């Protein structure tokens, strides 16, 4: 949690909803990761929070960047980051965007299908390519396993084909799922990566890189172990499978880098019940919901810590927390057992912690006429 962000909220009392992101926390997270995975290159996953203030701070620290679109590449280039420090990591890209990125000096491209590989060969000739493999990772609160990647056999065949298309087959990537709570989940995909390295080596192709993706956690209501445990477990898996011939290692953290840097403040718009029964839970409606930036409450997957911003004495009671829009999907927490003080009042403010990742970007639309989430970077 960021004390500076809380202090800023207390001193400036900005209109709600708003997010405050402490750039010093982002810096500390970056340094924590580089200390605990010293042999890896950190490519910040821009999608987690593309604010120029964050990109600028990380660019100065020497980070590289994982990008999902031409727009994200443009934002990174604006900070003077050279193309070699940018990976075009989305496996679904327009041909015109590949050509544009290539012209900007971006060398590294992800793919997970033959058609995408052919697009890259045509529009980024000679580029370094890496193939994303499917993983059956468990333990992630925000899984990413079905949409991206191909089976290891296909990855090996496509990387061999990449060489025939004039591309440089560079390596393998995977993502064990976001907010991954089990540090052992990297082991199996690393073993698959090594098997692909060996298979291609037998036909004279030397792969050079393993991209371990993201998945490193932020601190929500479910406890996590520290980044040290992730570093240790991952390096154990790398040496178990690759021995002392370690390849180039890339990580693409998003949530871990910026999640805990953010504190969001929201206002209680309504507190009500659906019946006169004393058993009926109270509904607490905030001025932010699923469409205002808290999209990851979908399925109640990501459970933020939420507290009133003032000290409220007395007992707490179970509540349903919901957003302000006229959409019944806009319920934040129903099954999760959230409690709020009995004496919470309409007009009170609440703080939602660890909200620096995957919030502002999800609120870029004006659904129901609510403004996109305002953010301050301090
Ligand atoms: C390709 C890629 N890399 C990295 C990330 C960042 O993951 P995380 O936020 O879990 O660190 C994502 C998240 O969607 C991703 O798709």
TrEMBL record:
Catalysis performed (reactions): L-ornithine + H(+) = putrescine + CO2
Signal peptide: none
Keyword Lyase: yes
Record's keyword terms, sorted: Lyase, Pyridoxal phosphate
Keyword hit for Lyase: yes
Cited InterPro entries: Ala_racemase/Decarboxylase_C, De-COase2_N, De-COase2_pyr-phos_BS, Orn/DAP/Arg_de-COase, Orn_de-COase, PLP-binding_barrel
Enzyme class: lyase
Protein name: ornithine decarboxylase
Organism per entry: Dongia soli
Organism placement in taxonomy: Bacteria, Pseudomonadati, Pseudomonadota, Alphaproteobacteria, Rhodospirillales
């Amino acid at each position: 949690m960021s004390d500076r962000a809380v202090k800023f909220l207390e001193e400036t009392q900005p209109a709600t909803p708003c997010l405050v992101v402490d750039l010093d926390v982002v810096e500390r997270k970056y340094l924590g990761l580089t200390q605990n995975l010293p042999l890896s290159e950190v490519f910040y996953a821009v999608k987690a929070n593309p604010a120029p203030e964050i990109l600028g701070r990380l660019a100065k620290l020497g980070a590289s960047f994982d990008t999902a679109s031409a727009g994200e590449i443009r934002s990174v280039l604006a900070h003077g980051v050279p193309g070699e420090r940018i990976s075009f990591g989305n496996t679904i890209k327009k041909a015109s965007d590949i050509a544009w990125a290539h012209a900007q000096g971006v060398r590294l491209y992800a793919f997970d299908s033959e058609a995408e590989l052919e697009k890259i060969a045509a529009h980024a000739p000679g580029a370094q390519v890496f193939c994303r493999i499917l993983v059956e990772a468990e333990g992630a609160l925000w899984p990413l396993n079905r949409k991206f990647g191909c089976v290891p056999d296909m990855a090996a065949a496509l990387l061999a084909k990449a060489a025939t298309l004039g591309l440089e087959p560079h390596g393998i990537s995977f993502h064990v799922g976001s907010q991954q709570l089990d540090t052992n989940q990297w082991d199996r995909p690393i073993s698959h990566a090594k098997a692909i390295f060996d298979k291609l080596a037998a036909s004279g192709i030397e792969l050079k890189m393993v991209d371990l993706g993201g998945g490193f956690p932020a601190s929500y209501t479910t406890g996590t172990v520290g980044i040290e445990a992730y570093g240790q477990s991952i390096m154990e898996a790398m040496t178990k499978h690759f021995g002392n011939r370690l390849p180039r290692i890339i990580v693409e953290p998003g949530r871990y880098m910026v999640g805990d840097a953010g504190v969001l403040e929201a206002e209680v718009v309504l507190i009500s019940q659906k019946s006169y029964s004393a058993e009926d839970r109270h509904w607490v409606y905030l001025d932010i919901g699923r469409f205002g930036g808290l999209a990851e409450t979908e399925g109640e997957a990501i459970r933020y810590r939420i507290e009133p911003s003032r000290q409220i004495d007395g007992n707490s009671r179970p509540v349903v927390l919901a957003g302000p829009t006229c959409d019944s999907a806009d319920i934040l927490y129903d099954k999760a057992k959230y409690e709020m003080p009995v004496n919470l009042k309409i007009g009170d403010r609440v703080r939602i912690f660890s909200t620096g990742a995957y919030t502002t970007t999800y609120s870029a639309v004006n659904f129901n006429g609510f403004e996109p989430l305002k953010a301050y970077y301090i």
